[in-house]
Amino acid sequence: MYCFICLILTLLTKCGFSLLVLEPSSTSVTSTNESQTPNPQEKNQSDSQLRVVGGKNCTIKEYPFLVSIRTFKSATHFCGGSLVSRRYVLSAAHCFEKFPTKPHFIKVLVGSTYLESKKGQEIGVKEIIMHKDYDDKTAKNDIALLHLAKDVKKQSKSIGFVKLPRRSLPLDLSEVCDANSFMVAGWGDVRPHDVYEKPEEILASSQLQCVKIPYIPNKMCLKYSKIAYNDKIICALYPKGGRDACQGDSGGPLFCKGTQYGIISWGRGCAMPDSPGFYTRVDKYMDFIKDTINNYRSSGPVKSPKIIFRMFTWLYFIIMWLLS
């Protein structure tokens, strides 16, 4: 009888009769009502999510580690990220506040200069791993990793991995890379505004933009904000204004000569004079990044009590049917 039951279950499964749904499928996501999907752009942005202003057109072959993070159904770009391995994208935790446990609401685009291009690879997200000490009120520990549903295929020069720094760098990063060589890039809005002129909606750039923004040491940044007392943040500022990273580029990299030193986090307004942007300092979180990539195992869906209950319920009814 036991072998017969196992045979029945095997046949049912092969015929497409699913007893368990261990993880969200693209079909279930597509059928989800878009109005029920949390929108990451709804966050109060008096302290703005960041985007590129005052930049120039760039290509993905110049910076092949750049990633567009978008909604699964409508493919609406809302944040940036950087590819650190075939399965992981580095980004900012605040990008995922609205759906930390719903990775099936988002996907990533790699290997494309343009948001609408079909040349890149679109890949779903299996898990969102936000730093356990992230504080949404202060933006401390604003860092997260996306565990992709499948490996990225490095099939061209348009896809590559960003270099990460060693764990302990000098407090003054200008000792490592020239202060005027730091750069941000992304597909965000290109319109400057002050803290009181928040745009009604993000007007994403269809083509990748990049701009150099001078790095300033934290001790100099203190004249603009006491936040610079935190050695886990980086300040960058073009004093005259007109260059910045703002809405739509959050989570993207602050990098210098191919090495990522910061993650775009927040700022007051965009591209305003004497108003620096603030970035999560990557070298302070290398243990989090490496431990996550090396040791993380997705187990949430498998251990779900609802799924276990569903499995035994179906099994019970099948056995009762066979014994009747």
Automatic annotation (TrEMBL):
Protein name: trypsin
Alphabetical list of PANTHER family matching this protein: GH13245P2-RELATED, POLYSERASE-RELATED
Subcellular location(s) per record: Secreted
Keywords for the protein's UniProt record, in alphabetical order: Digestion, Disulfide bond, Hydrolase, Protease, Secreted, Serine protease, Signal, Zymogen
GO CC annotation: extracellular region
Known EC number: 3.4.21.4
Signal peptide positions (record): 1-18
EC class: hydrolase
Domain Peptidase S1: 52-294
GO MF annotation terms: serine-type endopeptidase activity
Region (Disordered): 28-48
Similarity comment text for this entry: Belongs to the peptidase S1 family.
Any one of the GO BP annotations: digestion
Catalytic activity: Preferential cleavage: Arg-|-Xaa, Lys-|-Xaa
